[in-house]
Amino acid sequence: MKYISTRHSSQGAGETLTFEEVMLAGLARDGGLYLPLEWPRLSTAEWSAMRGLPYNEVALRVMRPFVAGTFDEDEFARLVADSYRTFESPEVAPLKPLGDSGLHLLELFHGPTLAFKDVALQLLGRMLEVRLAARNRRAVIVGATSGDTGSAAIEAVRGKRAIDIFMMHPFGRVSEVQRRQMTTVMAPNVHNIAVRSTFDDCQDLAKACFADLAFRDRHSLTAVNSINFARVMAQIVYYAWAALRLGAPDRPVAFSVPTGNFGNVYAGYAAACMGLPISHFVVATNRNDILARVLADGTMATAVVEPSLSPSMDIQISSNFERLLFDLYGRDGKALAAAMQSFRATGKLALGEAGFSSLRRLFDGDRCDDEETVSAIADCHKRYGEVLDPHTAIGYAAAKRNRRDPAIPMVVLATAHPAKFPDAVERAIGRRPELPGRLADLMDRAERVDGLTNDVAALKRMIDERMSAVQPARAPRR
Ligand SMILES: *Cc1c(COP(=O)(O)O)cnc(C)c1O
Fold first, then answer.
1. How does residue 317 score in pLDDT terms, banded at 50, 70 and 90?
2. Ligand 1, atom nearest to 391 Cα
């Protein structure tokens, strides 16, 4: 399979890359995002044959076409098995009906850091380590997190010899549990940075490191936030897994997805492109509702990021939306590059009639403020006895309001364990959910973190210094 950048120049059809190159690079050198030149399409018979198979088996069949050429089947099967052995549910992602409402919860939070990001990152960490070791290379991960990516990425690479990770989070804007899940990891290859600014600024700092090609090459920078296509790939699997359980490919299924950076719901779109019958997606946002607004009126317009009860969705520039825009712009990388540049400059992008109606065929948008989030947690608890985290609660509230056809089952992606956000849950149901056993002592562990202002030069200096100090000590042996 060949991969291209969303901003490739159309002359000469652009440069194509392999899966390994895409995984190691993260962000494309031209500032775009990588995606497949063509989506692999599975036949109805191929989807049907997956029904009833265990999660790992579905995972292999869905991901096989994407990784062919980088991993052979046995090696990849081993990486998948190792990755999902870290999950506390034998099913990996249990699917639970909510009474007979036609709504279902897909629990994606049984991994080591209790959020759906483990599903992709446990696999990505292993894939990176194997390929780097094979090439006798090392890499530096630079990332930005609004909460859950950071801990999931750190957990995925902690202690790995070939990888260092520098993870930025917005100071004071992630929950205490989220922060501690990052800052209590004492492995020498883990570097936490608290930036006195917003998540979007953290993301810009990371992007600026990648834009400096000399710096990027000096450290073999790679990104594991949701712009890395390997993460999208791993997330396609659970859309297939859930849909197959609910009658696909003979019956369509809808999904409601708590959305921030648009990585999760984009993976659902990819599943639809692969031939899975998905009737539509509900893009559920909190008060930072740029995506709900673009789905309402076809204009993408940035606003100031405001903190909310669902911090992992406090985002106003959803990076992965560019991948969808690529299709809305007829896969014309040059036109998209120009559009993104003007969006950067003006904070506005109008989709136009054709783009907007094509977007609305498959996507509905909705938003929930904090008050609605709390009442959704209370409502789901009262009706079905399920305790939701605030992100999932937004997906649940939006799902109830956006059934296009009540006969079509709708899956709400449960993206975090409620114990990660005890304050919001307590407000809703009057008690704090307990942390699962493996994190029970989290609040007592020591923390380690560096502070930084929103200054790219200072960030680069920090990375240069740390890497020159640690490199000889932890270089892979020849
Ligand atoms: C990251 C995250 C989201 C948002 O997912 P995107 O892929 O960024 O849209 C939603 N909920 C939780 C709990 C998250 O950690």
1. confident
2. 11
The two structure tokens encoding residue 347: 């904070």
Q: Is residue 2 annotated as a catalytic residue, yes or no?
A: no
Return the ligand 1 atom nearest residue 392 CA: 11
> In 370-463, at which residue ranges do the beta strands (DSSP E only) sit?
410-414, 450-452
Average pLDDT over residues 110-125: 96
Q: What pLDDT is attached to residue 403?
A: 98
In a domain, 37, yes or no: no
Please state the domain count of the chain: 1
Name 412's bridge partners: 105, 256
Is any atom of ligand 1 closer than 6 Å to the C-beta of 312? yes
Residue nearest to atom 1 of ligand 1 (CA): 312
Nearest atom of ligand 1 to the alpha carbon of 264: 7
Provide the CATH number for the domain around residue 417. Answer: 3.40.50.1100
How far is ligand 1, taken at its centre, from the CA of residue 472, in Å? 36
The 10s digit of each residue's pLDDT in 148-186 is: 789 999 999 999 999 999 999 999 988 888 899 999 999
**HEC secondary structure over 395-452:** HHHHHHHCCCCCCCCEEEEECECHHHCHHHHHHHHCCCCCCCHHHCCHHHCCCCCEEE
Q: Using CA positions, which residue lies closest to atom 14 of ligand 1?
A: 312
Task: Determine, yes or no, domain membership for 101.
Answer: yes
Kindly give, in sequence order, each residue whose CB lies less than 8 Å from that of residue 435, ignoring residues fewer than 6 positions away: 177, 419, 442
Q: What backbone phi and psi angles, to 5 degrees, belong to 165?
A: -125, 130
- What's the whole-number average pLDDT of the chain? 94
Residue among 107, 109, 313 to mutate when testing ligand 1 (max atoms within 8 A of CB): 313
Q: How far is the CA of 43 from the centre of ligand 1 (A)?
A: 30
DSSP 414: E
List, in sequence order, every residue forming a beta bridge with 165; answer none if it has no partner: 141, 190
Task: Say if residues 476 and 161 touch (Cβ distance below 8 Å).
Answer: yes
Q: How far, in Å, from the CA of 368 to the mean position of ligand 1?
A: 15
Q: Specify if 260 maps to a domain.
A: yes
**Residues 255, 256, 258: CA angle, nearest 5 degrees:** 135
Distance between Cα 259 and ligand 1 center (Å): 6
CA-based nearest residue to 110, from 97, 125, 91 = 91
Alpha-carbon span 478 to 476, nearest angstrom: 7
What pLDDT is recorded for position 13?
A: 54
Q: Contact 232/258 with Cβ under 8 angstroms? A: no
Q: Is 259 in the pocket of ligand 1 (CB under 6 A)?
A: yes
Indicate the pLDDT class of residue 476, thresholds 50, 70 and 90: low
Domain enclosing residue 389, as ranges: 94-113+230-429
Size of the chain, expressed as the number of residues it contains:
478
Residue range 379-392, pLDDT digits in tens: 999 999 999 999 99
Q: Evaluate whether 139 touches 132 at the Cβ level (below 8 Å).
A: yes
Considering the candidates 117, 160, 400, 420, report the single residue annotated as catalytic.
117
